[in-house]
Amino acid sequence: MNSGFEIAKETLRLEASRMRGHGDDYEAAAQRLRERNGRWGDDGLFAEIEMAWIECRQTVLAAVPSLGGMIGGMGHGMHAAPANIDAADAASTLPESAAWQ
Amino acid sequence: MAIMLPPMLDTTLELAGLWFPNINEDEIHADAQAARVVQAGTTLAGAEADATVRGTSAVYRGESATEMQRAWQSNDNDSGHLAQASAAMKVAPVALDGLGTVVTATKVAVGTIAAVGTVRLAYSALAAGPTAGLAQSLVLLAVRRAGTKVFRQASEGSGRTLATGLRTLATRRLHEIMERLRPPGGPGGTALAGVGHGPGRMPLSTGKNAFDRSPGILQRGGRGGRGGGRGGSTEGDANLNQAEQAALEAKKNGQPYDRKAANAAESKQKKAEKFSGIRNAQKRANNKRK
Q: How many Å lie between the alpha carbon of A65 and the closest alpha carbon of chain B?
């Protein structure tokens, strides 16, 4: 646990934007399914499985963006960590620079 | 290619009180293909995200990094939510392609029955004997019986096996994943230090850390931070000096005491009680009784 703190900010920032890209890719994968209207012109013979598929399709279309958002959120977090380090660094030099001398 | 029935055979089915399934298996196979694309695309993106997070361990270490890896574990592509979603989404294309095959088979079966029935109807018309009408009725009855049997099997087979499989193996599992999914930094523990608290927020752990002894760090930590919070405040305790302590003791025991020191001590205690919230709590309790 206590193995010290180490961060390569620029690399992490790069990885963070990559991560957000993965989140977008994940979400974009559902595009083709979203374009389908999910109707087969059934006349009642296969009603039960058509209902099951409509439900399944809705669930997939809801689950994929939320999982993609999770990946993107992870990317935002990876971006926030180096930003926090920068902010702390700036804050510690502003008011009392004389204290370090 | 969706199977269409020639108009001739359609008439035979209509005479037998049947119909040709209108459902388009091409649409089903297209849905299956779309579901397959979703499954493949999401699995690929999930694997890449997985590799990216694991790769950061080389450039980002520390407690917040450990938290991030731990948060990722419940979502990862090995056994986390991404892997579970990928497995659940694999079911849909298989079920749909299976359904497409069932639909084609149903159409072929009903079409064949219609063809056989049409030929038999033509034969019995050719016979043109006194029993021709009866023979035609028998043919239509046979067609109806055979067709109904096929329809029932197709409907029940797809409804029981395929629809149940789709519901339990795909839809319900995806629902479960969505219920468990929570954003990083959301309730129940933080994924990354300081996420969502605005810029400048330091990844502070509780208690003292090295930053407490450094000058100039802006801190807004909880209790125990340098000079911050009620815990370390001198006003939070009564902090009586020796004379005040002695006067207070004497007053309590009914002995002669230094009035000025006792008053000072009491006002200090009053103030401390206000700070710690005891005093107002007493007031509230009194009000309640009335």
A: 10
- Give tens-digit pLDDT for B71-106: 888 888 888 899 999 999 999 999 999 999 999 999
Contact between residue B110 and residue B21 where contact means Cβ atoms under 8 Å apart = yes
CB B41 within 8 A of CB B150: no
User: Tokens standing for A72?
Assistant: 């993107």
Render pLDDT for B104-140 as a digit per residue (tens, 0 to 9).
999 999 999 999 999 988 888 887 677 778 888 888 9
> Which residue reads 């230090």 in tokens?
B193
ipTM confidence = 0.83
Question: Which H or E element spans position B9?
Answer: helix B7-15
B116: enclosing H helix or E strand? helix B81-127
pLDDT tens for B198-255 read 333 334 433 344 444 444 444 444 444 444 444 444 555 667 788 888 888 888 888 8
Query: Within the 33-52 window of chain A, which residues sit less than 8 Å (CB to CB) from chain B?
Result: 33, 35-36, 38-43, 45-49, 51-52
- Please name the member of A4, A33, A45 whose beta carbon is closest to the beta carbon of B61: A4
Is residue A52 exposed (0-12), middle (13-18) or buried (19+ Cβ within 10 Å)? buried
Interchain CB distance below 8 Å, B30 and A57 = no
